[in-house]
Design a protein that fits this description.
With about 210 residues, this protein is mainly beta. The chain has 2 domains: about 70 residues, no CATH class; about 100 residues, no CATH class. It is built from 2 helices and 14 strands, in the order E-E-H-E-E-H-E-E-E-E-E-E-E-E-E-E. The strands form 5 sheets. Strands 8, 10, 13 and 14 form a 4-stranded antiparallel beta sheet that branches. Strands 5-6-7 form a 3-stranded antiparallel beta sheet, with no helix packed on it. A hairpin with a 5-residue loop joins strand 5 and strand 6. It is rod-shaped. The two termini are about 70 Å apart.
């Protein structure tokens, strides 16, 4: 038996001053009213339809559950296991898993790591993200400048300088430091000789996301 078996059409009338008027049991968006007093037209009238297309740019088309499910799957595939949240001081943070352990970090926070002192070469492969490092990730701080001079001078003068230079090889993860010392010697004549030397004691830092 059909679930609509026995259904009979009916009409309902009410008596008004002008006689019996037919009462409609149907409504539309302009007559259907919600508890807040707004009609369905006011709440939903701007929606022209539902689409599963990811290429739609209309602000009048609602996303289907199929599209929402697909986007959610894509998001989970790229950021699966990651939880984004805000700490008590209003800073954005992320929690993710490394093996069986959960790790939480502040987004946009940086940390400074001392990776060497007076080195001429440093292997950075033990630091996470080393293949993406650039020279902007490193800086050198002079801790002490040493200088020596020896002269027998009748005339003239000379100047020397030691300007440190950094180079980074992304393929090998090796940071090279050069030009941290300088030596200069001049002989003008038998009565005029000068020798100068300078060198730096320095620390090298890596700047990376915390």
């Amino acid at each position: 038996m059909s679930i609509v078996s026995g259904y009979k059409k009916f009409k309902k009338y009410i008596l008004t001053s002008s006689g019996f008027q037919l009462v409609s049991h149907w409504t539309n968006a302009n007559t259907l009213q919600f508890d807040d007093g707004k009609t369905a037209q006011a709440k939903l009238g701007a929606i022209d339809g539902i689409s599963s297309s990811k290429d739609s740019s209309s602000d009048k088309i609602a996303a289907s559950t199929k599209l929402v499910s697909e986007l959610n799957s894509n998001f989970s595939g790229q950021f699966g296991g990651m939880t984004f949240w805000v700490n008590d001081t209003g800073e954005p943070c992320v929690t993710y898993k490394v093996g069986a352990d959960s790790v939480s970090k502040k987004l946009g926070s940086w940390k400074r790591i001392l990776i060497g002192s007076n080195n001429t070469s440093i292997d950075c492969k033990k630091y996470e993200g080393w293949a993406d490092f650039t020279l902007d990730n490193f800086f050198i701080v002079a801790a002490r400048v040493r200088a020596g001079v020896s002269w027998s001078l009748r005339y003239g003068n000379i100047n020397i300088s030691a300007i440190p230079s950094l180079t980074y090889n992304k393929s090998t993860g090796i940071l090279s430091i050069s030009n941290t010392s300088a030596n200069e010697s001049h002989t003008y004549d038998e009565q005029s000789r000068i020798s100068l030397s300078t060198s730096l004691d320095y620390d090298i830092y890596l700047i990376t996301m915390g």
